[in-house]
Amino acid sequence: MTAERSLSAVLNVNDEERAVHLKPTDTLLFVLREKLGLSGAKPGCLNGDCGACTVNIDGLAMKSCLMLAVESLNKKITTIEGLKGTPIQQAFVEHFAFQCGYCTPGFIMNCHAMLNTVPDANDDTIAEWLNSNICRCTGYQEIEGAVRSIVKKNQMNRKRP
Amino acid sequence: MDYIGKSVIRQEAWDKVSGKAKYTADDSSPGILHAKLVVSPYAHARIKSIKTEKASHVFGVRAVLAGERFPLTGEEIRDRPPLATERVRYHGEAVALVVADTPHLAKKAADLIEIEYEPLPVVNNPTEALKKDAPLVHEQLGTYQKEERVYPVPGTNIANQTKIRKGNMEKGWAESEVTVEEYFSFSPSDHAAMETRCSMCEIRSNGDVVITSSSQAPFMIKRLIHEYFEVDIGKVIVETPFVGGGYGGKASIQLELLAYLACKAAGGRKVKLLNSREEDILTSPVHIGLDARVRLGSTEEGEIKAAELLFLFDGGAYSDKAADLSKAAAADCTGPYDIDNVWCNSLCMYTNHPYAAPFRGFSHSELLFAIERTMDSLAEKLGMDRLLLRYKNAIKPGDTTPTQVPLNKSNVGNLPACIRRLKEIIDWDEGVAKDIGNNKIRAKGVSCIWKTSTIESDAGSGVILTFNPDGSINLMSGIIEIGTGTKTVLAQILAERMKMEISQIHVQMEVNTQSTPEHWKTVASRGTFLAGRAVLEAAEDVIRQLKNIASCVLRAKASDLTVAFGKVFLRDDPSIGIDVKDIAYGYTFPNGNAIGGQIIGRGHYNLRHLTHMNKETGAGKPGPEWSVGAQAVEVEFDKRDLTYRIIRAVSVVDIGTVLNEMAAKGQVMGAMSMGLSFGSRETFKFDEFGRVMNSQLRTYRPIRYSEHPDYVVDFVVTPQVDAAYGARGAGEHGILGMPAALGNALSIAAGVKLNELPLTPELIWRVKKKEGFSDAFI
Amino acid sequence: MLSFDFDYYQPKSIEEAVQLYHALDREEKHPLYYSGGTEIITLGRLDLVYTNAVIDIKAIPECEVLGTQEGYFVTGSGLTLTAIEENNGFPLLSKAASGVADHTARNKITVGGNICGQIFYREAVLPFLLTDSKIVAAGMNGVRTEHIMSLFNKTLRLKKGELLVQLQTEKRYLNVPYRCVKKRPQWDTGYPLVTIAAIKAEEGIRVAFSGVSPFPFRSREMEKALNENGRIKERILASLQHLPKPVLDDVEGSSEYRLFVLKNTLFDILRELEEDHR
Hints:
The complex is a heterotrimer. By secondary structure, chain A is an alpha+beta fold. Chain A folds into 2 domains: 75 residues, Beta-grasp domain (Ubiquitin-like (UB roll)), CATH 3.10.20; 73 residues, DNA polymerase, domain 1. In chain A, 35% of the residues lie in helices and 16% in strands. Chain A is built from 5 helices and 5 strands. Chain A has a 5-stranded mixed sheet with strand order 2-1-5-3-4, sandwiched between helices. In chain A, a hairpin with a 2-residue loop joins β3 and β4. The radius of gyration of chain A is 17 Å and the shape is globular. In chain B, α13 runs parallel beside α14 and α15 packs across α17. In chain B, β13 and β14 form a beta hairpin. Chain B has an 8-stranded mixed sheet with strand order 3-5-1-12-9-10-11-21, with helices on both faces. Chain B has a 5-stranded mixed sheet with strand order 7-15-14-13-8. A 5-stranded mixed sheet of chain B has the order 16-17-28-29-30. By secondary structure, chain B is of the alpha+beta class. Chain C is of the alpha+beta class. Chain C folds into 3 domains: 50 residues, 2-Layer Sandwich (Uridine Diphospho-n-acetylenolpyruvylglucosamine Reductase, domain 2); 113 residues, Uridine Diphospho-n-acetylenolpyruvylglucosamine Reductase, domain 3, CATH 3.30.465; 100 residues, CO dehydrogenase flavoprotein, C-terminal domain (Enolase-like, domain 1). Helix content of chain C is 34%, strand content 26%. Chain C is built from 11 helices and 14 strands. The radius of gyration of chain C is 19 Å and the shape is globular. The interface between A and B is large, with 59 and 64 residues. Chain C: Pfam families: FAD_binding_5 (PF00941).
């Protein structure tokens, strides 16, 4: 049996160029956590079902367990570590929108992508997006409160001349 | 300083929203080896042969474990080999394990282990398990080592039996003018914490066994590694960082044992064993299933005179905590009602299913489904209002529990008040069901709840406080931060007692069994009670020490001093005092003399006056207090296609003093969500061979965002006199009545008795069809 | 975590992709075209897919086309389902796509992957079946265009090494009345018990199904029965005679219950589409 092959690559993560050795079979989640020390994205199922590993790729919410790291070359990767005091993080804190915190990075990255894409998302849009993640601790009502508070702010900002 | 009841933001909040909070699997330091399990594809089979040669030759493989007999394990009965040898008893049971340099290589090698099985007949539910000719899951049951108060029956599949004999059943039935009898059944399901279980182990050159684990019970890991593998208890060090959800599932000790064995086989190098989701669902312990029969007898006025209950718990292939779960169900078997004559047999049955761990509510949402559905049947038969029947029989101070504990104003909450409040919130007087047209019906179902925590009679908790030079305090408690926010609540309790700013209290989040005082287990909604009392005692300890030093400096008697606002001062003249920061590390007089030193406070609290339950009658005091509540679920049901939505779910619980309002509401709401998910959609689907057919989150589907109803949570406050600021536990109560209230609402809406879980449209269709529902679709 | 290794190729043209495939095949690399890749990653983890070479088609311009070209609405096989939903040039396709997996996953899952994958629901194919769309496939002998009904039988019957490049739908079908309803065992998430897509074409109603059998299908016999005269209920019962047997019986639902759901759903769809017509 042979040793594992790997290739050198540079990933753009959180606005930093990061050199990394990776194998074509490595998922982005694996590389972020095991090679780049970015453990904010969480493994929950490795099957694209739970959303705990969600990151943003060129602004799109992406389950990093469903993406090969090689697919993210030349793309802008944003992980939870790349968000610094954003309104949605603040809202999650104030609304008690998490308990154990394990699903939280994934939820926030999904919300972050949504609020950038559809700043005034209506309830149906919020539901469609947030159904991509599982939270086992809260009743989701707290998360709903957090997200709606930002949407509301966005709507008010927009109305102001 | 007024922190009691305030929605103080949890201490670790920003770490959790920025990805900085560390969980067990987040450690990926170089050099860690990775273990991978090989699990059984059969629910019951003889292992004919295991070939590991090919796996051993894979590049990077450091150890392969298979076929070796290790000591039997199990918390109540030692019936479980860490790795199966002669026989597998459930689908997903661990049979072999590979340790390699990377997860990829470990998986590659694990795939090359060849195991030959010979399938055996399976025991596929607890009712089958009880039959005389059922295959035996454990032929050697009589030979196993066990705890003193577990009562297995060798030669059968009974792992434990608990009897409740209260009053006189003959008299009870004689006084009963109306009787009802119902049967219930549901399969095991899963905790589905978002963090799959993970354990790491390293054996240091001095023999220290260092385990890091996503666990609710690090101190139990320490104890059991010592007991099972004869490692000196002081040499076992267990660390637990943040835990990504537990709900009871991480209170069982399972993966840790495998991590230890893997590490030992790999020469003590650090090994990480991370469950895949499939393993977390199949291999690690699960949420218990139940078959039950309930008979209730009452007078025509609705006074319940007799209750006869048979619980057959689906404990799965190994008894572990299931034995205890079945006992806890017996202790509270009647639900929160004052019934003089009670007969209950609660059996923990061995089956060829995954074995059970504790699950939020510790068998109470399960038994309450049976009781509260039967209460609705009784109300119907009596032609009586469903809440009125419950109100009439509600447990109160002066009554006794099934285990004959006398209740008083402190050890039981105020159920009648909860029912009254619930009645208002859900507009009960508008009626239970309303046709809203378009084939739709709105219906309300209710359920009352209660629970005591049948934890070990000597369970305890310790707290250490140390001061920093600026007068701020470090708080060390063995509570695990599994999401309940208990550690923030402990800071609130301390800030309140010390009358200081909460920002000056630093709570150590991670637990290390070598340096953190022991907290029994972070389970059973006992964290705030046990650790809260310990915090108060530790606070008294540091206050005493502060006063002693200050009394030298201020030349006043310690008893004349008060500690508050970061100062120690004369009670009658606050202008004379000294800052805490100036004495927190002792005090140095102007001439250089020094007294005292860093102030270190300690406190502990052990449960008191709990007693074992009598083997023949169940009499005994199994828990410190009974929390109560009343819940409701409102559904909108489609009469034509038999689908429904949950519109609203309401809880009124008496958790005593509410220490942190938003955190408490979050606990109750989260538990309600879990209860509704369990009640409406979560179950293992077993095939006829006892295999679990849905071991992924795309086929085992917890409730998601758009499916949540409106939640209403309200509190009735009956302080528990001996608890810190009167707070009762709050972590579990939201779940307890949800499956039952949902079942009651849907039974009303659909016009049939729905006594199984989960309450899917297909179940409703199946039951309705039996009763002649024609699926004419117009 | 995959237990096998593969090489990753990202060809820029159809020809390059096809040639790569055959070269890798000769080397016994078991090559697979890789579009969204979600099934290769997730089923590979469970040893249900094996390959030593993946050929990512997302850099091939023809696979990324979305829009009208010469009377056809062209859907590139490498497009993600959310890209299709947002474009909404083919509303029925958007609707069918939006039921697959979840929103985030659909940022990765592609229409080609959904149609050619192992997971048997393949709901994205239903709109193409209903609209007699054309399949554009590329192989060693160049690009061919075929009617979907001649190539799709339970699965898309491409030749070994052929690449699904595009789907072409006549523009006249883009705005016909349609319904696409996904019924799940419970609420809004999870696999379907049944998904029914239907359009009201000139000659009558067409229907296609997923979840009823372990493959999606459109049945002309069923359509014929549904378009007869008579009460909806009777037409539905008559059409059910032509269902592929046996009806799926699995963890999502029993076959009998599926039939119950199927009948209700079909009833609603027919009634609504027929009312639309009036």
